[in-house]
TrEMBL record:
It comes from Hyalella azteca. GO terms for molecular function: prenylcysteine oxidase activity. Keywords: FAD, Flavoprotein, Glycoprotein, Oxidoreductase, Signal. GO terms for biological process: prenylated protein catabolic process; prenylcysteine catabolic process. Pfam families: NAD_binding_8, Prenylcys_lyase. Its cofactor is FAD. Belongs to the prenylcysteine oxidase family. InterPro entries: FAD/NAD-bd_sf, Prenylcys_lyase, Prenylcysteine_Oxase1. The lineage of its organism: Eukaryota, Metazoa, Ecdysozoa, Arthropoda, Crustacea. Residues 105-478 form the Prenylcysteine lyase domain. This is Prenylcysteine oxidase 1.
Length: 490
C-alpha cells in the first residue's frame, strides 16, 4: 500500500466545488495524500457525476454523457480496481464515413479487408498517423510517474512541457496544420480526422493539435466503459474520500486572509433549487434563474478551495472576492445535444441496401445536422452477441434535432430522449484560453485542464495535480506528496 511521505498532522478543512469526475477524484486524492486526515466538503448543485450520466429507455440504461475510456488511461483504470467496479469492453462495430450523400469509407466485417481498404484509400499516411499517435501516448503517460513522485504544476503549459517539450506548442497550432507537418495526407485529415473530431468534440480539425490528438486516440479499438455506468466512479470516489456532499449552489468565494501559517477562504452558497435542473441534469454548479436574494446564504471557512467546475461565463456565476488577480475566464463551451432513439436506421438515407449492416455513421462533412450516429449497448450488458437487445442509437448534434430530421435518420421510432449538454470547450486557437491551476496559494482551478483537452482521464490527472498543489500548500512543504511504497521492495 502507498502511504504519504508527509502526513498532515493538523486536520485541514477543504472545499471542492463540483461533484463530477474531477471533483470526486480530487477529494479521493486529497484524502489519500493526507493519510485520511482531510475534512472535505463537496458542493454540487446538480447531480454527482456532472457530465457522466446514464438514462433509461425502455427499461435499459445507456450512457448519455462521457462514455468511453482509453486502455492507457491509468487513473480511470486504477479507480475501477479500487472501487470494485468492472470494465465493459466496447463491442466491435461496423462504421462508415459519410459525406452527406455517400460513404467515402466503410468498414468490412473482415478486419483484414478493412485494413486493406484503409491502405487503398489513405496509403502509408494511415500508419504515419497511428505511429504519431502511439508516440504521443507514450509521452503523455510520463505524467503518472511524475505525479507519483509528488510533482505538481501551476499551469497547463508546465504540465504539458513535463510530458514532452513538443506538447505546449500544439496548443497554438491547428490539428490540420500539425498533421500536415507530420506528412499526413489531406485526405486523412478531411475524412478520418474530421470524423473523429466531429464525433468526439463536435468540432473540426481546426481545433488545436493537442485536443486533436486526444480525438484520434479515442478512435482506438480497445476502448472500455464501466459496467453499470461511468457515473459510479465519481459516486463511489466521494464515498471512499469520506467527503460530505452538500447539495448547494456556490455563489461566492472570498480570500479572508493571506497571513501565515495558512490562508483562509470563505465559500458562500445557497440551497440548490429545482430550477438548477432546468438545464436537463447538467448540474456542475450551473447558472440558474432562482432569485438568490431571498435565498438562505450559508458561509463556511476553509483552508483550501478547489474549483472543480468550469468557470466560463456560460457555465457558472461564481464570483471571486479579494483575489490577487482579477481573473477573466475566456471562451465558451460547445453545445452538444444527445438524442437517444429506439428504432430502425433509415437505410436509404445513407444509400445502404436492405441487407447492409452498419452500427456507426461518422459524418466527414461539418455542415450536416448531426455529428455522429451510433448503436448503443445497455450499460449492464457485457456480451456483445446479445441478440435480444433493442436497437438504440445515440445521435450527437450541435442543436436540437427536429422530428423531420429524425425521420430522415430513422425508419421507425419507438421512443426517444434528449439531453442538452454544454459538453466541452469550444477550441479556437486564435482565442486566448485560461490554463492556470493555481488562482492563488490555497485556491485551485481543476477545470483549467479542459482547455488542453476534455476527457475523464484529463479530469483525473488535473484532480491529482490540484490535490498535490493543495497538499503542498497545507503542509508548507513544496516537496510533500510523494507516494512512497511502504513495503520494502529490496
Amino acid at each position: 500500500g502507498l502511504t504519504p511521505h508527509n502526513i498532515l498532522q493538523l486536520r485541514s478543512f477543504s472545499a471542492i466545488i463540483g461533484g463530477g469526475v474531477g471533483g470526486a477524484a480530487a477529494a479521493y486524492f486529497l484524502q489519500e495524500l493526507t493519510g485520511g486526515n482531510a475534512l472535505i466538503d463537496v458542493y454540487e448543485s446538480g447531480y454527482v457525476g456532472g457530465r457522466l450520466a446514464t438514462t433509461d429507455l425502455g427499461g435499459s440504461y445507456y450512457e448519455m454523457g462521457g462514455s468511453v475510456i482509453h486502455p492507457s488511461n491509468a487513473y480511470m483504470g486504477d479507480f475501477i480496481k479500487t472501487l470494485g467496479l468492472e470494465k465493459r469492453m466496447e463491442c466491435p462495430s461496423l462504421a462508415g464515413l459519410f459525406d452527406g450523400s455517400s460513404f467515402v469509407f466503410r468498414d468490412s466485417s473482415w478486419q483484414v479487408v478493412t485494413l486493406a481498404k484503409l491502405f487503398w484509400r489513405y496509403g502509408w499516411s494511415i500508419y504515419t498517423l497511428r505511429a504519431a499517435n502511439q508516440q504521443m501516448l507514450d509521452q503523455f503517460n510520463r505524467i503518472y510517474k511524475l505525479q507519483k513522485k509528488g510533482q505538481a504544476f501551476t499551469n497547463g503549459e508546465q504540465l504539458l512541457e513535463a510530458m514532452s517539450p513538443s506538447f505546449p506548442a500544439m496548443l497554438h497550432m491547428s490539428t490540420r496544420e500539425h498533421l500536415l507537418q507530420l506528412g499526413i495526407s489531406q485526405a486523412i485529415i478531411d475524412e478520418v480526422v474530421m470524423a473523429v473530431t466531429l464525433a468526439n468534440y463536435g468540432q473540426t480539425p481546426d481545433v488545436h493539435a493537442f485536443v486533436g490528438a486526444i480525438s484520434v486516440a479515442a478512435a482506438s479499438p480497445d476502448l472500455w466503459s464501466v459496467k453499470g455506468g461511468n457515473k459510479q466512479v465519481p459516486e463511489l470516489l466521494l464515498g471512499k474520500a469520506r467527503a460530505s456532499l452538500l447539495r448547494r449552489h456556490v455563489t461566492d468565494v472570498t480570500v479572508i486572509s493571506r497571513s501565515l501559517p495558512l490562508s483562509l477562504f470563505q465559500v458562500d452558497s445557497v440551497e440548490a433549487t429545482e430550477a438548477s435542473d432546468s438545464l436537463q441534469r447538467e448540474g456542475r454548479n450551473d447558472i440558474y434563474s432562482s432569485a438568490h436574494v431571498q435565498a438562505d446564504v450559508r458561509s463556511q471557512p476553509y483552508d483550501a478551495v478547489i474549483v472543480a467546475a468550469p468557470l466560463t461565463h456560460d457555465k457558472t456565476d461564481i464570483k471571486f472576492h479579494n483575489v490577487t488577480h482579477n481573473y477573466n475566464f475566456p471562451g465558451r463551451y460547445e453545445r452538444i445535444v444527445a438524442t437517444l432513439v429506439r428504432g430502425k436506421l433509415r437505410k436509404e438515407t445513407f444509400g445502404l441496401s436492405k441487407d447492409d449492416s452498419l452500427d456507426e455513421i461518422f459524418p466527414v462533412n461539418p455542415d450536416l445536422f448531426y455529428n455522429a450516429v451510433g448503436l448503443l449497448k445497455d450499460v449492464n450488458v457485457e456480451k456483445c452477441s446479445d441478440a435480444h437487445m433493442p436497437d438504440v442509437f445515440k445521435v450527437f448534434s450541435p442543436a436540437h434535432v427536429t422530428e423531420e430530421q429524425l425521420n430522415l435518420l430513422f425508419d421507425e421510432i419507438y421512443e426517444s430522449k434528449v439531453f442538452d449538454w454544454r459538453a466541452f470547450p469550444h477550441y479556437n486557437i486564435s482565442e486566448p484560453h485560461f490554463t492556470e491551476f493555481e488562482l492563488e496559494p490555497g485556491l485551485y482551478y481543476l477545470n483549467a485542464i479542459e482547455w488542453l483537452g476534455s476527457a475523464m482521464e484529463m479530469s483525473a490527472i488535473a484532480a491529482k495535480n490540484v490535490a498535490l498543489l493543495a497538499f503542498k500548500h497545507l503542509t508548507h512543504d513544496s516537496s510533500a506528496g510523494s507516494l512512497v511504497e511502504t513495503k520494502d521492495e529490496l
